Structure of Tyrosinase copper-binding domain-containing protein:
Amino acid sequence: MKFLPSLLALGAMFDASLAAPSSSLEPRACTTPKVRKNWASATTAEKSAYINAVKCLTTKPSKLGKSHKLYDDFVWVHATLFQQIHNVAAFLPWHRYFLTLYETSLRQCGYTGNMMYWDWVADSAKPSKAKVFDPTTGFGGNGNTTSTVWGTNCVLTGPFSKSSGFTLRYWNDEVRPHCLLRVFEPGYPEYNITEMYGDNYSPSVMAQVNAETTFDGFSNYLENVPHAAVHSGVGNLNGDMGPQSSSPNDPLFFLHHTQVDRLWYLWQRANPGARTFAYGGYKWPDYTPAGLDDLMPMGGLGANVTVRTMMDVNASNLCYKY
């Protein structure tokens, strides 16, 4: 394990685990699940429809009654609840719900497809060449890296570039309007640091993550190594995807977290009887043991729901697969 960002290191100390059999909990009522695709295998039309819907969110009024736009609602809620949803047991189920609410908002913009994911494991050898960064059919590439001054590392290509007019309101919990910022980690072979920290979300690292047999062990490893490395690899310190509470500023955040959700889904499906409702660890703020009936706050984006309702993607309230 080569990468453990200090901002996210707290979760590594927790190793408790709780589990409950799926047969006695959530009914499996989903008969026609939606399919979430790999961005790399989506058609040009599917990619265009998704990106157009994302841009549409920046024109819709806030659902929260704020002076910002609907897209900013997701940034504001994530930033406001940041401590409550990271390095705690609820990290995976909370973000699963967050993605579901985002997908629902995309549909309000006429999008008829489903969430898609960036398979950064497959791209870990050369992340900067991933199809998701294509300037025409993707999210654009790196930001301007000629300056170290905050706010100047604007994305130069693609639908969210500075020239496209895509602007963001928040930086962490402050109002600091800016262009979309990215600062790809270039890699330093002499220090054994690979491009965009790709060796920290490689197939070999994911094999170690998947070898964890408890929810708590799996969740902490996934959050603090591959998940965190992707954030820092794309954003570094001055980019929106870096270790910022406002990281949903970058539309790539949602494909990144759909991949995180997919990896959890695959871990669950590897042993569904034992893992569908496997849950454990600690909860914020007092770090008492977490449970399936804990309520997850959503800051007004959606109803506060229990962890239990987000555990089984085969249930009718989720109803999707990868």
Notes: Residues 1-26 have pLDDT under 50 and may be disordered. Strands lie at 34-35, 37-38, 116-117, 167-171, 174-179, 282-283, 288-289, 295-296, 305-306, 320-321. The chain has one domain: 6-321. The longest helix spans residues 215-235.
